[in-house]
Each structure stands twice: as C-alpha cells, then as structure tokens.
C-alpha cells in the first residue's frame, strides 16, 4: 500500500539521504498532499532493514508498483517515484555546501559524496547499470580494449544527432538534457524526470560550469561537466584552458570532450559539455610510439602507440602544454591531406576536428588529442573515418570520446543477437534465417565463426579493434605515417 511505502521512503531518506528527524513530518505531509492521502501509515515498518539497504531499489520498486496498482500508467508512476526521491534528497544548495566543505578536505571526498548521493537517490540507476555486460578484449598485437553491451541506454542514429544542430528544432523547456533548468524538472513522456538530479557549480576558464554524474555511468565515477549557457559544442584552445582548470581542481579525474561535429561527435552536440571521471580509459594509459617535438620549456609532443591517430603533449608548464595543444587544434581544423583522403573544408562545410582529453600524471599535465574527420563518400556514406559497413551489425553509432579512447559501448540488442549467432553456427543458413530472420546481417559473422571456431565474443573483439583502425585518419602504414609526420612538422617546425 502506498501509505506504508511512503513511510518507508521517509525512513530511507533519514538513513541514506541525510533527512533530519525534525524535517521528517514536514516532508511526510508534502507527500500525503501529493498523493491525496488523509493520514500516514500507522503500522510498524522495519527501519533496521531499510537502514541496511545498499541501493534505493526496494523503495523505488514499491512506489512504482503501488502506483501502477492504483491505475497509474508505468511512465507516470516512474516519474512520481523520481519526484519522491528528489523531494527527500538534500536541496541543491545543501549539496553545494556539503561538496564545497568536503572539497576543502580533499577533492576525492567531495566527488565521492556526490557520486554516492546520486546512487542513493536513484539518479544513477546502479542496479540497471550493473546488469551491463563488460569484458576486456586482449590482443596479440595492439593495446587491450574494454567492451560493454549496454542494456540501459537506447541505440542512437547519427542522422538524428546531426538534426539537433539545426536551428529549426523546436525550443522546449528545458532546451536539452544538459541545461541547468533540468534540476527539479518533473519530466514528460519525451523528457526524463529530473527531480533527483544534483550537480555542483564549477569555475572553468573564468566561466560558469556544473558537474554532475551520468545516469548511465559507463565507467567508475563517469561525470558530465556542462556549460551554464545552452550553446553548441566547439573545440578550441578555450576547451583546453577549461580542461586545465578542471584537472587542477580534481587531479584524480581525467576530463575529455566529444568532438563538435556529427559522426565523430557525441549524441548531444547542441550544448557545450565535457565528460570525465576516475577510470583511466585505454588511450590514457597507452605508450608513446615516438617523441616528435620538445619545446623550449621542456614539454614533449609524442605520437601515441594506439589505434586511433593520437598526439600526446606532456609537461610541467601548464601554459606551454595548453599552447602546444592549441597549435594542434588550430592547424588540424583546416589541414588537408588528399593523399590520405583527408579534406578539411568543402562545400559541405568543415570536416576536421579533434577529440581532446587531459589528465595529470605525477603533477605534470598530459593532453591527448585524437585527430578526427567526418567526411563521407559514396563508398562510405556513414563516414570514411567511421565504422565501415562490414562492422555495422555490431556498431553503427558515432564513435565518441569514450570509444575513441578504447571503451566500446555496444547496443543492448547484441546480447540477444550474440546468443542467436552462437546457435546459428551449428545450423544451415536456411534453417537459422527461418528461425531468426534478423540474422541476415550477421551471415558474414556466422560464416567466419564456422571457419575459425571462435566465439561471438572473440569476433566482437576483432570488430572493435577494426573499427578503431577505421577511425584513424592516418593509417598505421608507410603512407599514413608519412602523412602524420608531415602534419606534425608543419605544426611545430615551421
């Protein structure tokens, strides 16, 4: 019954969300009014059991079940449950004060507080995230990659993402999922409820930003840093300045940004934002292939020994590192190399940009710049430097910063399709297509697995490695490396 569940929610908030005893009746009466109840539950509840909950799921699940039983639709019942968790969470100002206080002790304590709160109030649906399938792909040749089949986020289409940059898109409130106005928003059928979101203010490059955690947390402490203004993403030297301020404040986190162009960018291009966190993605621990330039202040520029075309700049002088990184960004933006199919500008606009990252290593600043180009051709209508068509049955979405750095987020459908493929390997083509018609795009995978006797996981590992090689604007061959060295020479030596 809803009365009992609400009483349990109050008890949960006192144990896990910092609700004070003197505020309990106050919020209890708010909830009675919200749900049209005359009085609270008068029976006993197991407060010790509630205090031992590691996640809010028992409370949230009971709330949604009670509301569905009362005749409310599933979507609305979930939004109401979010309302309850948001109401019982610390207010935004209380979170800001607590975060700032802990930050004086250590940045780690502050970021851990916000992370724990985001789990405890169900903004991060931890139990759903934990169901994602994750493994490390190891190779005889090349760096290991991390691969996950994400069961909590829908697959997106590059063309739909590109439309978000159009000025014809209707203005709504909030304008997007990253706007400051999301805090406390009740949600709609097309916009998730955000009463339980909490973020903290930051000052980066002299401007106002906020930090929250991703509700999908692709890795440990996966945070999102978003600009106060709703403006399109733009990679420039100013991006690196903001990065520098961030890693000074949170030296235990890396920070990165999706590129600012469709195909090579992320799923939200219409609001300036970064992503970061406490997990070191494969790119960030890859080795240098060679040092190609050393500045007068001792900063070293190197080519990384990684699948995508990556330049690393590292040094103790922050301004020098940022200046060198800005040189790469500015040069690459309008640099063309037709011999390697790289055209920066044509009648369709600008095609070249970077996917940048930054972190601190033993007190030094390390900037990582992945060179990107989103040009398409008749042979590759979805992108020359994108996953090629032979890989689209596994991954067709844009390769954003997380995947470019070696952590693949694969669509949920692959859980089912991989199992079907494993079964199909022992069947005739006619039979498996009759049973699983959607495996028509997996015929090549099935044929290869029959020939090699490898598992679907091993096959997916090879595909992910192949996709990153597609993404590399300069291939790992003589022609490609000559082109890369020519670009570096023109950037730093002329």
Query: Please, what is the average pLDDT?
Result: 95
Q: What is the β-strand count?
A: 15
Structural class by SSE content: alpha+beta
Tell me the strand order in the biggest sheet. Answer: 3-4-5-7-6-13-14-10-9-8
The first-level CATH class name of the largest domain: Alpha Beta
CATH architecture of the largest domain: 2-Layer Sandwich
Helix content: 25-40%
**β-strand amount:** 15-25%
What is the terminal-to-terminal distance?
Answer: 74 Å
What is the 3D form?
globular
Number of domains: 2
CATH structural fold name of the largest domain: HIT family, subunit A
Helical stretch count? 17
Gyration radius over CA:
25 Å
Task: Give a description of the structure.
The chain has helices at 2-16, 21-34, 47-51, 57-69, 74-87, 92-105, 107-120, 126-129, 158-163, 237-249, 318-333, 401-404, 413-424, 429-435, 443-452, 456-471, 478-492; strands spanning 133-137, 145-149, 200-204, 207-213, 223-227, 254-256, 273-277, 288-294, 300-304, 310-315, 345-346, 349-350, 352-361, 364-373, 407-410. The radius of gyration is 25 Å and the shape is globular. The N and C termini lie far apart (74 Å). It is built from 17 helices and 15 strands. It is an alpha+beta fold and 494 residues long. Helix 1 (2-16) packs antiparallel against helix 2, helix 1 (2-16) packs antiparallel against helix 4 (57-69) and helix 4 packs across helix 5 (74-87). The chain has 2 domains: 2-88, no CATH class; 128-406 and 482-492, HIT family, subunit A (2-Layer Sandwich), CATH 3.30.428. Strands 3-4-5-7-6-13-14-10-9-8 form a 10-stranded antiparallel beta sheet. It has a 3-stranded mixed beta sheet with strand order 1-2-15.
């Amino acid at each position: 019954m809803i009365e009992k569940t609400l009483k349990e929610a109050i008890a949960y908030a006192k144990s896990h969300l910092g609700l004070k005893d003197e505020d309990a009746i106050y919020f209890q009466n708010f909830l009675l009014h919200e749900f049209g109840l005359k009085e609270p539950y008068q029976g006993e509840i197991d407060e010790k059991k509630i205090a031992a909950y590691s996640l809010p799921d028992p409370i949230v699940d009971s709330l949604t079940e009670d509301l569905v039983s009362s005749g409310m639709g599933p979507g609305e019942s979930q939004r109401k449950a979010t309302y309850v968790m948001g109401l019982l969470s610390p207010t935004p100002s209380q979170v800001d004060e607590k975060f700032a206080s802990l930050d004086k002790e250590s940045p780690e304590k502050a970021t851990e507080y916000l992370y724990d709160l985001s789990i405890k109030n169900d903004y991060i649906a931890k139990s759903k995230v934990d169901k994602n399938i994750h493994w490390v792909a190891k190779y005889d040749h090349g760096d290991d990659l991390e691969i996950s089949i994400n069961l909590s986020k829908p697959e997106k289409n590059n063309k739909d993402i590109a439309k978000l940059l159009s000025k014809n898109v209707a203005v709504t409130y909030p304008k997007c999922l990253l706007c400051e106005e999301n805090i406390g928003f009740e949600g709609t059928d097309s916009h998730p409820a955000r009463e339980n979101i909490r973020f903290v203010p930051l000052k980066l490059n002299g401007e106002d930003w906020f930090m929250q955690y991703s509700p999908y947390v692709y890795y440990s402490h996966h945070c999102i840093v978003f600009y106060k203004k709703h403006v399109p993403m733009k990679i420039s030297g100013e991006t690196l300045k903001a990065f520098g301020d961030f890693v000074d404040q949170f030296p235990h986190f890396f920070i990165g940004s999706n590129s600012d162009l469709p195909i090579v960018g992320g799923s939200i291009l219409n609001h300036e934002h970064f992503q970061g966190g406490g997990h070191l993605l494969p790119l960030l621990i890859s080795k240098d292939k060679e040092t190609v330039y050393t500045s007068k202040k001792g900063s070293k520029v190197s080519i990384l020994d990684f699948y995508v075309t990556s330049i690393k700049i590292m040094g103790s002088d922050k301004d020098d590192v940022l200046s060198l990184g800005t040189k790469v960004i500015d040069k690459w933006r309008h640099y063309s190399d037709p011999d390697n199919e790289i055209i920066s500008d044509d009648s369709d606009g600008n095609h070249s940009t970077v996917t940048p990252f930054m972190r601190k290593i033993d007190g030094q600043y390390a900037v990582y710049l992945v060179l990107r180009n989103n040009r398409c051709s008749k042979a590759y209508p979805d992108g020359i430097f994108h996953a090629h068509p032979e890989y689209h049955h596994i991954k067709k979405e844009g390769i954003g910063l997380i995947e470019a750095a070696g952590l693949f987020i694969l669509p949920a459908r692959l859980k089912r399709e991989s199992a079907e493929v494993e079964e199909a390997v022992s069947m005739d083509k006619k039979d498996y297509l009759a049973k699983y018609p959607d495996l028509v795009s997996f015929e090549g995978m099935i044929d290869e697995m029959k020939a090699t006797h490898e598992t679907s996981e091993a096959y997916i590992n090879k595909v992910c490695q192949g996709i990153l090689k597609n993404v590399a604007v300069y291939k790992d061959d003589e022609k490609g490396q000559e082109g890369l060295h020519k670009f570096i020479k023109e950037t730093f030596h002329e």
